[in-house]
Specification:
The protein has helices at about 10-15, 15-25, 30-50, 60-65, 75-90, 95-105, 115-125, 140-145, 155, 165, 175-185; strands at about 55, 110. Helices cover about 55% and strands about 5% of the residues. α2 (about 15-25) crosses α3 (about 30-50) and α3 (about 30-50) packs parallel to α6 (about 95-105). A two-stranded parallel sheet has the order 1-2. It is mainly alpha-helical. It has 11 helices and 2 strands. The protein is globular and about 50 Å long. It starts with 9 loop residues before the first helix and ends with a helix.
């Protein structure tokens, strides 16, 4: 596939906050923070391409115990229980955020990890297949993509980084820029 890097400045992100609040219809700081890079990216896709439908990875972390804190789950059953809780709440947070950010830019997204057959399959598998193993979250998914060299190892086996936080410069975390900006508005 062809890849394009889109680099945005903190000013771009901060200027988008009002639009994001409008489209999300929430003042929840975590949702807004996580929405900024997605909103800016979908805006860039709308402005610079003829793409109308996007594939999203929404749901994979919730379904496959992909968050870093799952490394500390006391048991696979505990991890499964929390995974199930997250899956039930997706419509209130991540999927809602993705839908509104893309729709706010006139685009649609598809979430293959939330296909009902896949969800039912994964929820029915032995819980220890979903928990992080050998230091990797979503290890079973990584292994599935390692066959036929779909992705280079440097991508496939890298450490997870949250989308909204991974866009930060090393100078200061993204959420700190937002906090400073919002405190100046009051």
């Amino acid at each position: 596939s062809d890849h394009t890097a889109y680099i945005f400045t903190k000013e771009d992100g901060l200027e988008a906050i009002r639009d994001i609040i409008y489209y999300l219809e929430t003042y929840d700081i975590t949702t807004i923070r996580a929405s900024i890079p997605m909103y800016l990216l979908t805006r860039e896709i709308k402005d610079d391409t003829n793409i109308k439908v996007l594939l999203s990875g929404e749901g994979s972390d919730e379904l496959l115990c992909g968050y870093l804190y799952f490394h500390k789950a006391p048991t696979p059953q505990d991890a499964h229980n929390d995974s199930f809780r997250l899956m039930k709440e997706l419509y209130k947070y991540d999927v809602l955020r993705a839908d509104r950010c893309t729709a706010g830019n006139g685009l649609e997204f598809r979430d293959p990890f939330l296909d009902s057959e896949l969800v039912n399959f994964v929820l029915g598998m032995a819980h220890d297949y979903k928990v992080p193993r050998d230091g990797y979250e979503k290890e079973i998914l990584r292994r599935a993509f390692s066959y036929n060299n779909y992705l280079p190892d440097s991508v496939l086996w890298r450490r997870k980084a949250a989308f909204s936080d991974a866009v930060s410069s090393s100078e200061k975390p993204w959420y700190k820029w937002i906090q400073e900006y919002v405190s100046c508005l009051s």
